[in-house]
Specification:
The structure holds two protein chains of two kinds. Helices cover about 60% and strands about 0% of the residues of chain A. By secondary structure, chain A is mainly alpha-helical. Chain A folds into two domains: about 90 residues, Orthogonal Bundle (Fumarate Reductase Iron-sulfur Protein, Chain B, domain 2); about 70 residues, no CATH class. By secondary structure, chain B is of the alpha/beta class. Chain B is built from 16 helices and eight strands. In chain B, the strands form two sheets. Chain B has a four-stranded parallel β-sheet. In chain B, α4 packs across α5, α7 packs parallel to α10 and α11 packs across α12. The longest helix of chain B has 18 residues. Chain B starts with a strand and ends with a helix. The chains are: A mainly alpha, B alpha/beta. Chains A and B meet through α3, α5, α6, α7 and α8 of A and α1, α2, α3, α4 and α8 of B.
């Protein structure tokens, strides 16, 4: 683990510290409601003690509904903490396949949910205007400059190893 | 009102018929939509999960494009709205984040200044136009009992987005009421549709959706009305998957608000976008009388 990752983990632990384990995050979480093994209250407890989750990869199971953030009486943003953990996980090349694919699409065309074939025809038929496309060169400069490309390549490399 | 129109990937590429309804009703309220070469907002579950900095800089780029034209951004998707609003909040309240964004943006000759705001259609209809302006346009009320779903990313974080109450939203219900519908209170009104984990954990995602649909079905609505294309897809396509997975029999038609607004306004060609729906109501949405009104043009008498 790099020094920078270590520093980031310390920041996340600090952000989680005000938690007093009241559990309103768990009772508000739609994921916990159907998958009790994914428990936000225990997740935050693990972050406070170790800086990571007990079950590696569980950070990717947050639905990002923001209910826990909204209700936390201590103003802890579990969502932000989990985004921090996802960033660390992605930096190691451990992002889920669908996320990697979405980000690859973003890097290629600036869109993460490209349409199925025929969508342009459908748009035409409805009389919708052509959507102005972002300059690919601009995307490349910003994506590479902010470190996105390095992370994407790491995840794509892991995928191809797994295949 | 002139806005930089942030359609968003999902609406543009997956629900073009819903986009059509927005572009149909907009001129009737003097709303001019300007299309700009935006990228994806970017969406938090994908790009932001990869790199917070990449997310922030691309959101700043999108907002900067609108700033260059001197326009505020109008969003149609709750996800885009939350993402752009959160990025804007960070850029406007944390000087170090703003400098970071501008350092990167200078490489593509752009600058984030903070001069454009981000507003969702929900806010334009409820807060800017209001009940009076909308009801003036209603020709043929849409008579249905409906459940509304504002969507997580219009409601939370409430302090920053300020669209409606995050625990007990009422504004969307008012908006459907103006069109003639009866909004129904239901248990899990503010609960997530499950979209956020669909790609990486579909079993969890559809279990969440089932809980949500159960809650809607309890009050026996004629339809569900949404203000987010991602929620639309969850409910509409998703209910068929839920039915397969759990042996349920959900059959709840789903509408994006402006589709029903167009119907209520008696606009022509609404059948064109309603045809794009996969779950159709078992009653006519456009009533005969409305259809007849459409083919009885005043111009036969005025000419």
């Amino acid at each position: 683990m790099t020094d920078e990752s270590q520093k980031r983990i310390e920041e996340l632990r600090e952000a989680a510290k005000p938690c007093f384990q009241c559990g309103i995050c768990s009772s508000s979480c739609p994921v916990f409601r159907v998958a009790p093994e994914v428990n936000p209250r225990l997740a935050i407890d693990a972050v406070v003690s170790t800086g990571e989750l007990t079950e590696e990869g569980n950070e990717w199971l947050c639905a990002y509904c923001l209910m826990c953030d909204q209700r936390c009486p201590m103003g802890v943003s579990l969502t932000d903490i989990l985004i921090g953990l996802k960033n660390l996980s992605a930096a190691e090349g451990n992002a889920p396949f669908n996320i990697t694919k979405a980000v690859e699409s973003f890097f290629t065309i600036g869109v993460i949910a490209p349409g199925t074939t025929g969508v342009e025809r459908k748009r035409n038929k409805l009389g919708l205007p052509e959507i102005p496309k972002p300059d690919p060169e601009q995307i490349k400069i910003l994506f590479e400059g902010t470190g996105g490309l390095e992370i994407l390549e790491k995840n794509l490399a892991k995928e191809s190893l797994a295949e | 009102m002139k806005y930089a129109f942030f359609i968003g990937c999902t609406m543009a590429y997956r629900l073009p018929f819903a986009e059509k309804s927005i572009r149909m009703v907009a001129p009737h309220f003097d709303i001019e939509l300007v299309d700009l070469p935006f990228t994806c907002c970017p969406e938090p579950s994908g790009v932001r999960s990869f790199s917070d900095d990449t997310w922030l800089v691309f959101a700043a780029r999108n907002i900067a494009l609108a700033e260059e034209k001197g326009l505020d951004i109008l969003t149609a998707c709750a996800g885009c709205h939350e993402s752009l609003s959160m990025a804007k909040h960070e850029l406007d309240t944390k000087p170090e984040r703003k400098s970071l964004a501008n350092e990167h943006l200078s490489a593509v000759d752009l600058e984030y200044k903070g001069t454009s705001s981000v507003i969702h259609l929900h806010q334009v209809f409820h807060d800017k136009l209001g009940a009076e302006e909308i009801s003036k346009k209603v020709e043929t009320p849409v008579i249905m009992r409906v459940v509304t779903h504002s969507g997580c990313h219009l409601l939370r974080p409430e302090e920053i987005l300020q669209v409606d109450s995050s625990e007990a939203p009422v504004k969307f219900d008012k908006l459907v009421e103006i069109l003639g519908m009866e909004p129904l209170e239901y248990m899990d009104k503010t609960m997530c549709c499950g979209a956020g984990v669909r790609g990486q954990a579909s079993d969890i995602s559809f279990s969440i959706l089932k809980e949500k649909l159960d809650s809607m079905a309890m009050v026996n609505p004629d339809a569900a009305v949404v203000f987010c294309p991602t929620c639309f897809i969850s409910f509409e396509s998703g209910q068929r998957i839920v039915n397969r997975m759990f042996g349920t029999e959900f059959k709840i038609p789903v509408y994006y608000y402006t589709e029903l607004l167009a119907v209520a306004m008696g606009l022509p060609e609404v059948e064109e976008f309603l045809a794009g729906h996969r779950v159709k109501p078992d009653f006519p949405l456009v009533h005969k009388s409305a259809a007849e009104q459409q083919v009885q043009p005043e111009n036969t008498t005025s000419q």
